[in-house]
Design brief:
By secondary structure, the chain is of the alpha/beta class. It is about 40% helix and about 25% strand. It has a six-stranded mixed β-sheet with strand order 6-7-8-3-9-10, sandwiched between helices. The protein has a four-stranded antiparallel β-sheet with strand order 2-1-4-5, covered by helices on one side.
Length: about 250
C-alpha cells in the first residue's frame, strides 16, 4: 500500500475547474515533485491534500484511511506537515521559538498545569526548546537559535519554516516552492536539505519551478497542466516526454 493515494481528485470554484480528476500514489521515503506552468493547479492540489480546501469530488487516503476534507489540524496529528509559498513566520519571536510553535500539538495543553507552571511542564518546555535547537542545526541554522526572526535573511527564514514543519515530526511534508526567491547558493542549500529530509525517512512532496533542482532531487514527478494530470514518471521519463516538452519544458532546438 502506498503512503498517499489520490483518486479522481477535483475541485471547482464556480465555473473554474482548478483541479480535474487527478490520480497518483506516493510511496514512503521518496521525493515526489509536482511541476507545471503557472496556474496549472499545483498549490491548489497541495491545499486539497493538506485540508485547506475540501474536494468537490474524489478520494484522498493516507495509509489507506480517507482524509479528504479533514482539517489541517486533524492532518497534523496524522503526520502531515507543510510550508507555504509566502513565509508564515512570527517576526517578533526568536528563531527557536518559531520552531517550537511547530511542536504545539505535542505539548501538554492542560491550562491548570500551565497556569501553575508545574515542574513537569517546565521540564517539557526545556526539552522542546532543546529539540527545536537540534532541528535548527539539522537545517543549518544553529547560529540563529536566539536571533529574532526579523533579523534573519530571507534564505534563512525559508529554512526556518522547514524546521518548524519538521518540529511536528511528520511522516509526510509538503514543501511549496522552498527555493523561490533564493540566490544560487541558497538554492543549493535547500536542494541538499530536501534530500537530507527524505534520507531521514520523511516523505517529501515538492512544488518547485527550479527544474535543475527538481530533476536532481525527484524520485517521481507529476506534471499538471490546466488542472489536469499531463504526465507522471521519473526525471528521465518526464524530460523526454513530448507532451511535457511542448507544454512546459520548451521545445528542443
Amino acid at each position: 500500500m502506498s503512503l498517499l493515494e489520490v483518486n479522481d481528485l477535483s475541485i471547482h470554484f464556480g465555473g473554474v475547474k482548478a483541479v480535474q480528476n487527478v490520480n497518483f500514489n506516493i510511496d514512503s521515503g521518496i521525493v515526489y515533485s509536482v511541476i507545471g506552468p503557472n496556474g496549472a493547479g499545483k498549490t491548489t492540489l497541495f491545499n486539497l491534500i493538506t485540508g485547506v480546501y475540501k474536494p468537490t469530488t474524489g478520494d484522498i487516503r493516507l495509509d489507506g484511511e480517507a482524509i479528504g476534507g479533514k482539517s489541517p489540524n486533524e492532518l497534523a496529528t496524522r503526520g502531515v506537515a507543510r510550508t507555504f509559498q509566502n513565509l508564515q513566520i512570527c517576526m517578533n519571536m526568536s528563531a527557536v521559538e518559531n520552531v517550537m510553535v511547530g511542536a504545539h500539538l505535542r505539548l501538554d495543553r492542560n491550562l491548570v498545569k500551565a497556569a501553575l507552571r508545574f515542574p513537569g511542564l517546565k521540564k517539557r518546555d526545556r526539552e522542546m526548546r532543546a529539540e527545536a535547537a537540534e532541528l535548527m542545526a539539522f537545517v543549518g541554522l544553529e547560529q540563529y537559535v536566539e536571533t529574532r526572526a526579523d533579523a534573519m535573511s530571507y534564505g534563512a527564514l525559508k529554512r526556518l519554516e522547514i524546521a518548524r514543519a519538521l518540529a511536528m515530526k511528520p511522516r509526510l511534508i509538503f514543501l511549496d516552492e522552498p527555493a523561490a526567491g533564493l540566490n544560487p547558493k541558497e538554492t543549493i542549500e535547500i536542494d541538499h536539505l530536501v534530500r537530507k529530509i527524505a534520507d531521514s525517512g520523511v516523505t517529501v512532496v515538492l512544488v518547485e519551478h527550479d527544474m535543475k533542482m527538481v530533476m536532481n532531487l525527484s524520485d517521481r514527478i507529476l506534471v499538471l497542466n490546466y488542472g489536469k494530470k499531463l504526465a507522471e514518471g521519473t526525471g528521465e521519463e518526464i524530460r523526454n516526454n513530448p507532451d511535457v516538452i511542448a507544454a512546459y519544458l520548451g521545445t528542443h532546438d
